[in-house]
Amino acid sequence: MQNTTPSYDPARLKAVILPIVSAHGAELVDIELKTEREGWVLRVFVEKEGSAEKRATTRDAAVNLELCALIARDLSPALDVADPIPHRYHLEVSSPGIERPLRDARDFARFVGEKARLKLKTATPDGQKVITGILGEPKEGVVTVLDGPHTHEFSLENIAAARLVFEFGPAPKPGKHHR
Q1: Contact 75, 44 (CB under 8 A)
Q2: What is the pLDDT of residues 71-93, one digit of tens each?
Q3: Higher per-residue confidence, 174 vs 116
Q4: Are 46 and 74 in contact (CB under 8 A)?
Q5: C-alpha dihedral over 86, 91, 95, 97, to 10 degrees?
Q6: 143 near 135, Cβ under 8 Å?
Q7: What gap in Å lies between CA 173 and CA 177, rounded to an integer?
Q8: What is the reported pTM?
Q9: Those residues with Cβ within 8 angstroms of residue 139's Cβ, 6 or more apart along the chain or in another chain
Q10: Plot region of 155 (φ>0 → left; ψ -120 to 50 → alpha; else → beta)
Q11: Do residues 118 and 145 lie in contact, with contact meaning Cβ atoms separated by under 8 Å?
Q12: Which residues of 30-39 are buried (b: 16+ CB within 10 A; e: fewer)?
């Protein structure tokens, strides 16, 4: 099985996806095309319309399974007609989830105060390429991350990948029962 992304026009793919997602009252978060054991998978991640603008939490922005199914039902034939991907693939439409990716300055601004994990293209002076901490307010293409007593600043260009980090709350104390 081939692990390289085939040649396709991302702008053409997005042009097919955007109007259908929008018609269903959702907004496009991300598109992912990659190989898995069963072959190529095209994942389309969506949220409720206006979530980015309102700086909605992942919970408030989440879409339900029914909406994902409706978008997939309409998107599948549109992709078949436009044929923007030159090979077979499986289509999946879903919410980006609570550990959603952070793609641009708007995402970093939206999730200020949330915990995130950043993978860097160039290591920090002490050799770290992965930083986990609380997001600060981004300024002019620079993202701030508070990692305990340390404050790090990274240019958006140095961030290879970033996503929110979900943490479970504290475990209940022994002998306490929650109903």
Answers
A1: yes
A2: 999 999 999 999 999 889 999 99
A3: 116
A4: no
A5: -80
A6: yes
A7: 9
A8: 0.79
A9: none
A10: beta
A11: yes
A12: eeebeeeeee
Q: What angle separates helix 65-82 from helix 10-23, to the nearest 10 degrees?
A: 140
Distance in angstroms (rounded) separating the CA atoms of residues 68 and 109: 26
Straight-line distance from the first to the last Cα atom of the chain, in angstroms, rounded to the nearest whole number: 49
Q: Would you state the pLDDT for residue 172?
A: 59
CA–CA separation, 95 vs 62, rounded Å? 6
pLDDT band at 176 (very low <50, low <70, confident <90, very high): low
CA proximity to 27, closest of 8, 44, 43:
44
**C-alpha span between 26 and 144 (Å, rounded):** 29
C-alpha angle 33-53-168 in degrees, rounded to nearest 5: 70
Alpha carbons 93 and 100: distance in angstroms, whole number: 14
Confidence (pLDDT) at 3 = 44
What count of other Cβ atoms lies within 10 Å of the Cβ of residue 48? 18
User: Which among 14, 17, 2 has a CA at the least distance from the CA of 88?
Assistant: 2
Question: Does an H or E element contain 30, and which?
Answer: strand 26-36
Q: Which residue has the tokens 């601004």?
A: 109
Q: What are the pLDDT digits (tens) for 98-152?
A: 899 998 888 999 999 999 999 999 998 889 999 999 999 889 889 999 988 889 9
Q: What average pLDDT score do residues 159-170 get?
A: 87
List the structure tokens of 102: 């952070």
